[in-house]
Write a structure and sequence with these properties.
Helix content is 44%, strand content 14%. It is of the alpha/beta class. Bound molecules: NADP nicotinamide-adenine-dinucleotide phosphate (NAP). Residues 9-12, 39, 149-150, 171, 200-206, 209, 235, 252-257, 260 line the site of NADP nicotinamide-adenine-dinucleotide phosphate.
């Protein structure tokens, strides 16, 4: 199964004011841009976003089979929608994973998700229990592929050691404003294991445009200059920075505005030169290369 190179994220969907047929029409436009993969999580919108996306799938029944859905589990939020949760915590038990997926499928009104991710590194994760949950979900056809999010390489290895199939991704924060996974072994592990990570908050959650810290000001200046050289926009340059890495990063967009989603797609046609890439890198770190 191939996911699209750019993924549309729905974390901020509650801010968009789109539901049902309008959200279905938005998703059709996104598909038209070449994005067929949608990033969700049980907890998004305080356990509401999957239901909203389900309302879109019900409004346009043909849509489901054209899409690949990613959802996540293992974070427990205190919410009136989950009265049994006493405190904010993590739960990677077999029972919680299976129950969470079944709730996600009901909310979405579908019989399977293409990819399930463990949302956060959980210090109490027992890899054997996770393996049992994954095996049950795979056998029942409720989940086609499995991955993780915000995992260190060693935590990923611990889980992988119990699985018969390779994890397909590690979804992590990565942007020209957040270089950690380029340097802490996260992307090296993905290169070694030949999986493609996903990059969340590819525009620093909007800080690329609104931040007034020294790093943001430096990066914005460098990205603006490169944008002018390429005849592209600053957001396209930020996505190009991610796409240039040989690990094959898949950036996840966060905006409901279609022109801003399109800016990510245009990055595939606007490759950065090595010099432009290192200009952004040093603007981000604030120091020259050694
Ligand atoms: N696995 C995880 O732990 C995790 C964590 C966080 C996020 N995610 C996933 O990653 C996705 C993307 O994260 P994100 O929303 O933080 O991504 P982002 O693209 O870094 O940030 C989106 C924010 O930037 C603003 N923005 C985008 N383009 C802009 C422009 N040209 N000018 C000014 N502002 C602009 C958006 O405003 P507008 O909305 O007004 O366009 C929005 O507030 C989420 O939807 C979610 O699916 C995963």
């Amino acid at each position: 199964m191939e996911l699209s190179n750019i993924i549309a994220g729905l974390w901020r969907q509650p801010e968009w004011g789109l539901e049902g047929a309008e959200l279905a029409a938005w998703t059709r436009e996104v598909l038209g841009l070449g994005i067929d993969t949608i990033d969700l999580a049980d907890i998004y919108g305080g356990y509401t976003v999957e239901e909203s996306f389900g309302s879109a799938l019900r409004a346009d029944p043909g849509l489901r089979d054209e899409l690949k859905l990613i959802t996540k589990c293992n974070i427990k939020l205190v919410s009136e929608r989950r009265p049994q949760h006493q405190r904010h915590g993590y739960d990677s038990s077999r029972a919680h994973i299976v129950d969470s997926v079944e709730r996600s499928l009901r909310a979405l009104g579908t019989d399977r998700v293409e990819v399930l991710l463990l949302h956060r590194q959980d210090p109490l994760m027992d890899p054997d229990e996770v393996a049992a949950a994954f095996s049950e979900l795979e056998t029942s056809g409720k989940v086609l592929e499995f991955g993780v999010s915000n995992f260190t390489p060693s935590h990923l290895e611990a889980l992988q050691s119990r699985l018969s199939r390779p994890l397909v991704t590690n979804q992590v924060e990565a942007s020209v404003l957040h270089l950690d996974p380029f340097q802490d072994g996260t992307f090296d592990q993905a290169l070694t294991r030949r999986f493609r990570p996903m990059a969340w908050s590819p525009l620093g959650g909007g800080r690329l445009f609104s931040g007034d810290g020294e790093q943001e000001v430096r990066v914005r200046a460098a990205a603006s200059r490169i944008a002018e050289e390429l005849g592209a926009s600053v957001d396209t340059v930020a996505y190009s920075f991610l796409l240039r890495h040989p690990v094959g990063l898949r950036p996840i967009t966060g905006s409901g505005k279609l022109d801003r989603v399109a800016a990510a797609v245009r990055a595939m046609e606007a490759p950065l030169s090595r010099d432009q890439w290192f200009d952004l890198w040093t603007a981000s770190t604030g120091s020259p290369l050694p």
